[in-house]
Amino acid sequence: VDEAYMDFWDETVLDLVCKYENLIVLRTCSKAIGLAAARMGFAVMDQYKTNLLRAAKSPYNCDAISQKICAAVLQEQDLLRRCCDEIIVQTQRLYAGISELVRRYPDLLECVYPPRTNFVFVKTAYAREIFEQLEKAGIAVRCFPHGLRICAGTRREQTLLLSELERILMPS
């Protein structure tokens, strides 16, 4: 089970690893922890599968510096929780701002899905056009055929994004 975004949600299947021998839970240090450049993650599984994977992996599949950094960060549970809480607050703020734009421009934005991650997904038939305008303004979002994935970012980045979206959506 991929739990890459579970730091932003209050449900997990970690407790079930002991109950089901075929269960492996995967987590990443990229999302909530902010260590995407380290390319680190971990798996939670029973001892038998752990031993099998250890026997099959190369001896130096991960550099020692990344391991030490991630191990140190994972020890700081209070700091991690505060960081996650702040990301959740910013994601909810982004969701509220885009929800208001959906309300005001229903012909252009169909809906915004409630987040369980550090981003929101906006359903729109105009994804490519909006994406290109945001890109010209130096704002990076992910474009899909029927929508945009927008990461929470900082308060300042959100203010800039919402202002630019308003400019793009406003009839001329």
Could you walk me through the main structural features you see in this protein, from its secondary elements to its overall organization?
- The protein is an alpha+beta fold and 172 residues long.
- It folds into two domains: 70 residues, no CATH class; 86 residues, Aspartate Aminotransferase, domain 1 (Alpha-Beta Complex).
- Helix content is 44%, strand content 14%.
- It has five helices and six strands.
- A four-stranded antiparallel β-sheet has the order 3-4-6-5, covered by helices on one side. A two-stranded antiparallel sheet has the order 1-2.
- A hairpin with a 2-residue loop joins strand 5 and strand 6.
- The longest helix has 28 residues.
- The protein is elongated.
- The mean pLDDT is 86.
CATH superfamily of the largest domain: Aspartate Aminotransferase, domain 1
Largest sheet: 4 strands, antiparallel
Radius of gyration: 20 Å
What percentage of the residues does DSSP assign to strands (E)? Answer: 5-15%
- CATH 2nd-level architecture of the largest domain: Alpha-Beta Complex
Categorize the overall geometry: elongated
Uncertain stretches of 5 or more adjacent residues: none
How confident overall, as mean pLDDT?
Answer: 86
What percent of residues adopt helix (DSSP H or I)?
A: 40-55%
Number of domains: 2
N-to-C series of helices and strands: EEHHHEEHEEH
**Helical/strand content category:** alpha+beta
Distance between the termini: 47 Å
The total strand number stands at 6
- Helical segment count: 5
Say what the CATH topology of the largest domain is: Aspartate Aminotransferase, domain 1
Strand order of the largest sheet: 3-4-6-5
Class of the largest domain, according to the CATH hierarchy?
Alpha Beta
